[in-house]
Design brief:
487 residues, Rossmann fold, 2 domains, 6-stranded parallel β-sheet, 19 strands, binds adenosine-5'-diphosphate, binds 1,3-bisphosphoglyceric acid, Phosphoglycerate_kinase_sf, kinase
Length: 487
């Protein structure tokens, strides 16, 4: 079942610019990262064409960022990659040609009532890893979930994804009606080198989410080695994301998974400063972990969205009928105190756009944060706040954003969120590392049409939130570690 593993990836920074190595290409590109002006602290934007992929470096989904995640140990080693996982880029033709590779991707894309894909971002994001494997002569067994089906449910079949996958890969993708069993085994046996077989929705089996070892073993028995590229599902310890690694070696990270980690862990823990975090969204309760974790790392914290009213109320301001979490008032106060103690510049909006009802056609007006009348609710940050936030961001070198500034689903209350998206796009153009950490902020950035210029847009909402909270993801933990090599 398991094939011989490839040589480990290079996990240390080169000690001089004349560094040369016969090791994997991605490792050599880590060396090049030292002098990248765009991304000086972390890594190089590596155009995938250098790895044989199409696409442009301007498209965040078609670039692979190598981030070395350095931590010096002061004992002669120049640095060690922390938490480094083996990458598919470390596997060569010798490792892959003729091998059956189980690729877990997150192809959980939205479909309309006619089963048309309404956003193919996750499919496009999965392509670089699949292409790499195809080009190395592997036989790709592609697995994903779609939705949250309870048993076999036709509307959650992965069949509608086949045409788009085939189009993007430039080959005819085969589709199985199941994800395990003799019929699937037959198709796998007939799969040519460079062929791709899409398995049926792995969540049609309840054993998937229960991470049942017998089911994981059956999935694993289809292949020789495992690649996890399903970032959006990496926070789930499921059979196809975690359990399968116990039966398949090597188990390595795909390009997308690695890029997500490079940004959401690497760039955030080793940021180019000043480092600003922007946190919004509806409730402070769902962002406590993220705020607390970012307070440890950032220089500036900008807060927006519905959560600000809990902070206002905690400071004794009237908030009208704005969203407030009464049981989080003390927490809000303690977060403000913590920011102060840590020397983090925490900014709350100074003005807000209020509405007389929660509706797209509500009457609205701009008021100072201290003057929200009874019966009115704050649904967006105001123009002065947009200016203050933009000015605060002006000097930053790294910005991470999670959560909208207001109810951006309603046109009238989308200005704050859209202005921040535009500001980040502008900063990105000036070389600032801009990271959009999943969820509704991604939708906002896409709505404004500036997604392509951001340094990184996460493909996982829940997964990115957990990473930003400092949690480890089971789908990542289970992968093979890179063994540090002294230089
Ligand atoms: N002032 C506000 N009042 C009520 N809801 C808000 C407000 N500002 C933002 N929201 C809502 O927050 C939601 C996003 O919150 P959340 O799920 O926490 O963020 P994300 O999806 O980015 O993680 C959006 O649907 C938005 O309408
Ligand atoms: O869409 C997903 O997560 P997200 O909505 O948090 O980005 C993933 O595919 C995970 O799906 P799940 O939350 O049903 O496990």
């Amino acid at each position: 079942m398991a094939s011989a593993t490839s040589p480990t990836s290079l996990s240390l920074l080169p000690s001089s610019s004349s560094f040369s190595s016969s090791r994997s290409r991605s490792s050599v590109q880590v060396a090049a990262s030292l002098s990248s002006p765009r991304f000086p602290n972390l890594g190089l934007r590596v155009p995938l064409r250098r790895l044989g992929f199409s696409g442009t470096a301007a498209d965040p989904l078609f670039s692979y960022h190598v981030a070395p995640k350095i931590r010096g140990n002061g004992k002669g080693l120049r640095g060690v990659v922390s938490m480094a996982k083996k990458s598919v880029g470390d596997l060569t033709v010798a490792d892959l040609k003729g091998k059956k590779v189980f690729v877990r991707a997150d192809l959980n894309v939205p479909l309309d009532d006619s089963q048309n894909i309404t956003d193919d971002t996750r499919i496009r994001a999965a392509i670089p890893t699949i292409k790499y494997l195809i080009e190395k002569g592997a036989k790709v067994i592609l697995s994903s979930h779609l939705g949250r089906p309870k048993g076999v449910t036709p509307k959650f079949s992965l069949a509608p994804l086949v045409p788009r996958l085939s189009e993007l890969l430039g080959i005819k993708v085969e589709k199985a009606d199941d994800c395990i069993g003799p019929d699937v085994e037959k198709i796998v046996a007939a799969l040519p080198e460079g062929g791709v077989l899409l398995l049926e929705n792995v969540r049609f089996y309840k054993e998937e989410e229960k991470n049942e070892p017998e089911f994981a073993k059956k999935l694993a028995s289809l292949a020789d080695l495992y690649v996890n590229d399903a970032f959006g599902t990496a926070h789930r310890a499921h059979a196809s994301t975690e359990g399968v690694t116990k039966f398949l070696k090597p188990s390595v990270a795909g390009f997308l998974l690695q890029k997500e980690l490079d940004y959401l862990v690497g760039a955030v823990s080793n940021p180019k400063r000043p480092f600003a975090s922007i946190v919004g969204g509806s409730k402070v309760s769902s962002k406590i972990g993220v705020i607390e974790s970012l307070l440890e790392k950032c220089d500036i914290l900008l807060l927006g969205g519905g959560m600000i009213f809990t902070f206002y109320k905690a400071q004794g301001l009237s908030v009208g009928s704005s969203l407030v979490e009464e049981d989080k008032l003390e927490l809000a106060t303690s977060l403000l105190a913590k920011a102060k103690a840590k020397g983090v510049s925490l900014l709350l909006p100074t003005d807000v756009i209020i509405a007389d009802k929660f509706a797209p056609d509500a009457n609205s007006k701009v008021v100072p944060a201290s003057a929200i009348p009874d019966g009115w609710m704050g649904l967006d940050i105001g123009p002065d706040s947009v200016k203050t936030f933009s000015d605060a961001l002006e000097t930053t070198k790294t910005v991470i954003w999670n959560g909208p500034m207001g109810v951006f689903e309603f046109e009238k209350f989308a200005v704050g969120t859209e202005s921040i998206a535009k500001k980040l796009a502008e900063l990105s153009g000036k070389g600032v590392t801009t990271i959009i950490g999943g969820g509704d902020s991604v939708a906002a950035v896409e709505k404004v049409g500036v997604a392509d210029v951001m340094s990184h847009i996460s493909t996982g909402g829940g997964a990115s939130l957990e990473l930003l909270e400092g949690k480890e993801l089971p789908g990542v933990l289970a992968l093979d570690e890179v063994i540090p090599v002294p230089v």
